[in-house]
Amino acid sequence: MTIELSMLVPHVPSICHEDQVPEFQKDMVSAMKDVSKEIYRLKPDAIVLVSCHWPSTFFHYVDCTPEHNGILTAIEAPDLIKDVPYHYPGDPDLADELVKAGQDAGLQVQGVNDPYYVWDYGSVVPLRYLVPQEDIPVINLSVTLAASLEETYKWGQVIAKVLRKSDKKIVFVSSGALSHNLVRGRHNKPTVAEHALDKQFVEFVMNKDYQAAYNMLPEYARMAKVESGGRHLAMLFSMVEEGSEPAYLADGQSSGSWNALITFGNKQVAHKEANVEREYVK
Ligand SMILES: [Fe+2]
């Protein structure tokens, strides 16, 4: 049917539990809760989510599991994300279609159907805010380290084609940061040079010059250490519909990374605190 809404979402570990969110990250949480209302208004049949914290080495994996049920303690931050339960339906039929389409396109794609596979926090954290009732089927995708940005974009195009041909309404979620040159101290922002690249990237996006934003990804990723080498952004660009409206809803730092919530829809998603004079244009 359509990809009703696409988005870049943050997943910084310190927002996992709403009562523990630092002040400078609260806006991201508030905006994700607003986006959740939009998701429930759209009533999608499935959410397709690519997570920077499912880094696969060689294959593009698709989580075809019919029921995602587990308890997550994050390997990277077991103090912040510990024993977090999740239980979402999957969509094995659509997931199998994605696998087949990828393989038919000559890509190294494999399906995963394993009730013991435990989700990563890049999947769990944003979904806690976006789909708090755990009642919309989810298909997760890995970011594949052996795949270039171009191959990831191509895989995204294959996915987008299947989603548009299906009779289902889809929301696509890209879970990851912009600049990501991590340092100790959660309050730290990216360096001025790294953040200059963030601002240029976001400016292209907000001007709907998605081609220019995509074209800067290789150098942006190298110089500002964009999370997953920018693969989640390359895949996002393959989903964004021609003419869709970007909305920059919130942002914030986390240990030297820059994180933004940006949606792409048929109309702008409203966020009560949204302000185009936000950080990225300062
Ligand atoms: Fe991350």
Automatic annotation (TrEMBL):
Keywords: Dioxygenase, Oxidoreductase. GO terms for molecular function: ferrous iron binding; oxidoreductase activity, acting on single donors with incorporation of molecular oxygen, incorporation of two atoms of oxygen. Residues 7-242 form the Extradiol ring-cleavage dioxygenase class III enzyme subunit B domain. InterPro entries: Xdiol_dOase_suB. This is Extradiol ring-cleavage dioxygenase. The lineage of its organism: Bacteria, Bacillati, Bacillota, Bacilli, Bacillales.
